[in-house]
Amino acid sequence: MAIVPVEHGLLLAGVLFTLGLVGVLVRRDIIFILLSIEIMLNAAGLAFIVAGSARGQADGQVMFIFILAVTAAEVSVGLAMVLRLHHLLKTLDVDAADSLRD
Amino acid sequence: MGLELMALVPALPIAGFAALVVIGRRLSRRAAAVLGVGSVGLAAIVAIAVAAAYLAAPPEGCSYTQDLWQWMRVDGFGPRIAFHLDALSLVMMLVVAVVSFLILLYSAEFMAGDEGFARFFAYMNLFVGSMLILVLADNLLLLYLGWEGVGLCSYLLIGFWYKDPANGRAAMKAFIVTRVGDAALVAALLLIFTSLGTLDIAEVGRRATNEWPAGSALAVAAALLLLGGAVGKSAQLPLQTWLPDAMAGPTPTSALIHAATMVTAGVYLVARMNVLFALAPPVQFLVAVIGAATLLLAGASGLAQHDIKRVLAYSTISQVGYMFLGLGVGAWGASIFHFLTHAFFKSLLFLAAGVVILNLGREHNMFRMGGLRKLLPLAFWTFLVGSLALAGLPPLAGFASKDLILYRTWTSTLGGPLLWLAGVVGIFLTSVYTFRMVFLVFFGPASRKPEGRSGAAMTVALVVLAAGCLLASVLGWPEALGGTPVLVNFLELALPEAPEHGGSAALEGVLSLVSVLTAIAGILVAYVLFLRERGLVERLYRSAVGSAVHSLWLAGWGFDRLYETVLVAPLAAIARLNRGDFVDIFYRLVGRLAVALHSILSFTQTGRVRWYAAGLAVGAIIILAIVVAL
User: Fold this and answer.
1) Of B14, B39, B197, B318, which is least surrounded by CB within 10 A?
2) Whether B608 and A94 lie within 8 Å, measured CB to CB
3) 3-class SS at B59?
4) In Å, how far is A49's CA from the nearest CA of chain B?
């Protein structure tokens, strides 16, 4: 099995992260924002794994398992908040939820 | 021994004040009057008992100090709350307590219809307490406490009818003008403490004699500053302008504070600190000159006033001028004697004038009075007794004391015939303006019918004060006329004797005769001008010189206008210029900057999650860029 160069792995992680960030910034639907955050987290995890395998250490994979746990918690809390938001505002548009401004 | 009761004398009025302040609103008028008059009455009784105990068995060294407690202790400075009784403070205490009691008794009826009844008695009690602290104080700091206390009460009582803004202005004027003197007194205290290391009055005298040679710069400075304080409180030149306006207060207040007691605090201060003045001969001469100038200027101003209380106010300034003249020539005892007789006859005049004013519906203008001799006999006879005493006719009180001052002025090494002459001209002016009042108010055609109100308490107060005027000369009947100056001899237990030369009974007799004849001449002039030939005065007013002099005297020699243009107007102009406050501009700019920055930052707070996320991302990129660049 051919070894994937580190640069390729990190480049992929960077591209994925940027895509996720752009998604967070441009999408207004909160479900898509959560999905984009998921992509960003996975990009970070990928970067850890690539870096870990490049050095021949397991630390990167350990970090990825942490990230998975954080993601699971984040998604459950996030979805609960989405339900509350929809219940309150009858919409999933995050720009409508700006009442904390004042 | 009854001397330990001395502390009660100031304590009782202060307690009365505290009680009236706390529960005065809930008391009936009767209860407030009983509390207010009773506490001072008790103080007067205790004062008489203390005096009796002192006279029966004079304490060692003729002075007794009652040490109550230590006031404060700061390093080497430990003033005590202690009262000192000697011949001088004994006389002051007795006069203050007794005259205050009589005037408060009178006020219980005079103020009967007033809505601020309990407030009035609270202030008056605080005043009496402060005045007694002032005269009994053992050290200068305690004296200063009493000094400020009486100043405060004077302010509160001049502005007693505060709903009229003019009264408030008069009160402020009195407070601010006397403050000039008070500042000088504070400076004197600081100077004495820093150079002599003590404020205890007896100790200051001892150390000053030991450490300061006569005429040394420090002694002159200390005496000058003390004189500044005395001049402010006693309404002498050049700080006399507040007293005529102080007549805005209720008449008993004018009688008690602005005639009988507080304005003589300056006389007491100078007499009490006589050692310092003896060490500074130029300042002592200045005291005499101020006294002579004041008695002449104020006497002339008294001639032109329309308001009966303002005449009495100028008369008070003029009489206190006599006391200063006496102090200046070293006749300490004679000055205090004149303080005593003045306290009686001037408060009598004020109270009798108060009866007239009350009965004519608060009318102050003498030209709208007249013919009240038959209608208000009590006021007439008591006013006449007071006027004769003020003019200095024997055998009334003013004669003995004023003549003693004039005799000592002539014979003293510090005085001389010129100062005596000023005093005699003052007698002429005094009797003219006094009997101008008598003739305008009580003689001539009757103008209006009085309401006829004067109750038992007022009568008692007036009659007792009139009796005091008749009898007080017993205390100092001139030696030339077969008397002995009992009071002056007694006072010389505490005060030094006047430095005399060439005095004799014959000279005293001649001088007395001159002043009595001058007084009678003054009365005759007043009779001709203001009763027989009213047209003469009218013609005089209409002539150019006459009207100019009249308006000058009416305005009290224009001192008010002088101070207005020289001091008040420039200050007011500066204040107007600086209305925006230069210093505040900087701080206001800081505030504006903060507000501007705030509005910029608050623009970024939109409440939108995506906006914040973008902010986070941009921030992270910037930090990454910085880290990479480094």
Assistant:
1) B197
2) yes
3) coil
4) 21
Sequence-distant (6+) residues with CB within 8 A of B630 are none
Interface test with B, best of A34, A81, A95, A102 (most B CBs within 10 A): A95
Nearest to B515 by CA among B598, B408, B412: B408
pLDDT (0 to 100) of residue A43: 94
Reduced to 3 states, what is the DSSP secondary structure of residue B424? helix
- Tell me which H or E stretch contains B590: helix B582-603
Q: Which fold has domain A10-90?
A: Helix Hairpins (1.10.287)
Kindly report the number of other CB atoms within 10 A of residue B506's CB atom: 9
**How far, in Å, CA of B156 to CA of B250, rounded?**
11
Query: Taking the domains of chain A in order of start, what are their residue ranges?
Result: 10-90
The answer to whether the Cβ–Cβ distance between A97 and B613 falls below 8 Å is no
Q: Per the structure block, which two tokens stand in for B81? A: 């709350």
User: Rounded distance, CA B83 to CA B146, Å?
Assistant: 12
Determine which helix (DSSP H) or strand (DSSP E) holds A87, and give its type and residue range.
helix A59-89
Q: Work out the angle between the directed axes of helices B265-272 and B140-158 (0-180°, nearest 10).
A: 170
Cβ–Cβ gap A98/B606 under 8 Å: yes
Question: Best mutation site among A24, A32, A102 for testing chain B: the one with the most B CBs within 10 Å?
Answer: A24
Residues present in chain B in total: 630
The ranges assigned to domains in chain B are 280-532, 581-629
Distance CA B123, CA B426 (A): 34
> Would you give the DSSP letter of residue B606?
-
Reply yes or no: is the peptide bond before residue B478 cis, omega within 30 of 0: no
Asked if B121 contacts B31 with a C-beta cutoff of 8 angstroms, the reply is no
Identify residues of B whose CB sits under 8 angstroms from chain A CBs. Answer: 605-610, 613-614, 617
* H or E, element range at A43: helix A30-55
This model of the complex carries an ipTM of 0.84
Which is nearest to B90 in space by CA: B127, B145, B53?
Answer: B53
Q: How far is A102 from chain B (nearest CA, A)?
A: 8
For residue A21, the chain B residues in CB contact (below 8 A) are 617
Q: What are the tens digits of pLDDT across the range B246-300? A: 888 888 888 888 888 888 899 999 988 888 888 888 888 899 999 999 989 988 8
Tokens of B544: 């150019």
Kindly give the residue spans of alpha helices, DSSP state H, lying in B451-542. 456-471, 486-491, 505-527, 534-542
